[in-house]
TrEMBL record:
Keyword Kinase: yes
Identification of the protein by name: Aspartokinase
Pfam families in the cross-refs: AA_kinase, ACT_9
PROSITE patterns linked to this entry: ACT, ASPARTOKINASE
CDD domains found in the cross-reference section: AAK_AKii-LysC-BS, ACT_AKii-LysC-BS-like_1, ACT_AKii-LysC-BS-like_2
Record-linked InterPro entries: AceGlu_kinase-like_sf, ACT-like_dom_sf, ACT_Aspartokinase, ACT_dom, AKii-LysC-BS, Asp/Glu/Uridylate_kinase, Asp_kin_monofn, Asp_kinase
Residues annotated for substrate binding in this entry: 47, 81
Species annotation: Rhizobium tibeticum
Gene that produces this protein: lysC
GO CC list: cytosol
Known pathway: Amino-acid biosynthesis; L-threonine biosynthesis; L-threonine from L-aspartate: step 1/5; Amino-acid biosynthesis; L-methionine biosynthesis via de novo pathway; L-homoserine from L-aspartate: step 1/3; Amino-acid biosynthesis; L-lysine biosynthesis via DAP pathway; (S)-tetrahydrodipicolinate from L-aspartate: step 1/4
Gene Ontology terms, MF aspect: aspartate kinase activity; ATP binding
Family per record: Belongs to the aspartokinase family.
Length: 424
């Protein structure tokens, strides 16, 4: 007997038939004698609809920009998961399984105060463990917890993955299964590149980079938690027949295991390609080339919660003036330009230019640590397709390249092929 946390994403619980199908997956593990806790997302499209309602609702218009109260945003958007946890508990009860739904506040899952993007601080797993010991299946609403103000706080988009891994750590589960609409983690998004291959295993560090650089199959924070707490996490499909042979295999379930790099015997140089759309580039021209100028630019941007990513500073030709270029999410451009305008005197630049609709494609692999020439291969392959590179950043295990939006799919396919990742 083992303890398993099973998480089902939005498409897996999109309607009553799919919820019934999810209940069959749960029943399989219960019948095998395991203790089970389930984490559910909202039905697919529901969270977008709720977010849309909040954005469309009348708001107080402040001095600077229209704002809504993030606590009320959370009150609205957390409701999607409440519906699915109740419906799944009902579907399980109909199969004679002792099941009960739980909201984040009932456990409680304690978070910090960052409404809309809260981090889990602590989970009291004792009640869940006790109930599981009595043979009850806990069906827990993902994406939500309880802030220090005793109000519902949500964990950021895709946050149910994080709920699941955090609960698995809290109840010391033997395994956390993330069920979704693909049957594992692929070398790149299989919806963009049909040649993508499913990975049997992927190292925590690589999955962390893949998720941070745009592969939305897992929320970044869930991978961090899995790595820190050594949660054995599998990504697998909810669309396969729950009772097909091998589905209940405890040690080797179908899907992708996220694990320590030592567990991966045949490590490739490049493991995967990720991409992030809606990047924008901002350039400050003829900037004073003196100490403190970067702090003057990026300090105020950080204070305004603008996430700056790639930064390129040109070498000054005359020793006094230079150019600085960096990227931000497209949605933050207007805010960034405003902040830069307010600080123009202090920073000391001539003009600011911006371009939206860019894409960042990234090549990821732990094997890069010990191989030279990986970046050169990417640059040549992109050049051969006539794709212009606007900015580059690298780390030990990744290369990120900024390009024009319309070339995104071509670039991802090109990089996927040039490292030999295409399936035969
Ligand atoms: P869920 O609703 O189950 O949480 P998501 O839509 O958040 O599902 O994540 C699953 C999706 O992630 C897939 O449908 C796929 O298009 C996308 N995806 C992006 N990159 C990858 C990858 N490398 N491997 C698998 N899926 C990926
Ligand atoms: N329902 C939330 C979202 O759409 C959380 C999740 O699905 O993980 O972002
Ligand atoms: Mg998701």
């Amino acid at each position: 007997m083992a303890r398993i946390v099973m998480k089902f994403g939005g498409t897996s619980v999109a309607d009553l038939d799919r919820i019934k199908n999810v209940a069959r997956h749960v029943k399989r593990e219960v019948d095998a004698g395991h203790e089970v806790a389930v984490v559910v997302s909202a039905m697919s499209g529901k969270t977008n609809e709720l977010v849309g309602w909040v954005q469309g609702a009348p708001k107080v218009v402040g001095a600077n920009s229209p704002f809504y109260d993030a606590r009320e945003y959370d009150a609205v958007v957390a409701s999607g998961e409440q519906v699915t946890s109740g419906l799944l508990a009902i579907a399980l009860q109909a199969m004679d399984i002792n099941a009960r739904s739980w909201q984040g506040w009932q456990i409680p899952i304690r978070t910090d105060n960052a409404h809309g993007a809260a981090r889990i601080l602590e989970i009291d797993g004792s009640d869940i463990i006790k109930r599981m010991g009595e043979g009850q299946v806990a069906v827990i609403s993902g994406f939500q917890g309880l802030g220090p103000d005793n109000r519902i706080a949500t964990l950021g988009r895709g946050g149910s993955d994080t709920s699941a891994v955090a609960i698995a750590a809290a109840v010391k589960a033997d395994r956390c299964d993330i069920y979704t609409d693909v049957d594992g983690v692929y070398t790149t998004d299989p919806r963009i590149v049909p040649q993508a291959r499913r990975l049997k295993k992927i190292a925590f560090e690589e999955m962390l980079e893949m998720a941070s650089l745009g592969a939305k199959v897992l929320q970044v924070r869930s991978v961090e938690l899995a790595m820190v707490h050594k949660v054995r996490t599998f990504v697998r499909s909810s669309f396969e027949d729950p009772d097909a042979p091998g589905m209940g295999d405890f040690l080797n379930p179908p899907g992708t295991l996220i694990c320590d790099e030592d567990e991966i015997v045949e490590q490739e140089v490049v493991t995967g390609i990720a991409y992030a759309k809606d990047e924008a580039q901002i350039s400050l021209r003829r900037l004073a080339d003196r100490p403190g100028v970067s702090a003057a630019i990026f300090g105020p941007l950080a204070e305004s919660h603008i996430n700056v990513d790639m930064i390129v500073q040109n070498i000054s030709e005359d020793g006094s003036k230079t150019d600085m270029t960096f990227t931000v999410p497209s949605g933050d451009v207007d805010k960034a330009i405003k902040v830069l305008g307010e600080n123009k005197e202090k920073i000391g630049y001539d003009v600011v230019q911006n371009e939206s609709g860019l894409v960042k494609v990234s090549v990821i692999g732990i094997g890069m640590r010990s191989h030279a020439g990986v970046a050169a291969t990417a640059f040549k392959a992109l050049a051969d397709k006539g794709i212009n590179i606007k900015a580059i950043t690298t780390s030990e295990i990744k290369i990120s390249i900024l390009i024009d939006g319309p070339y995104a799919e071509l670039a991802v396919r090109t990089l996927h092929s040039c490292y030999g990742l295409d399936k035969n």
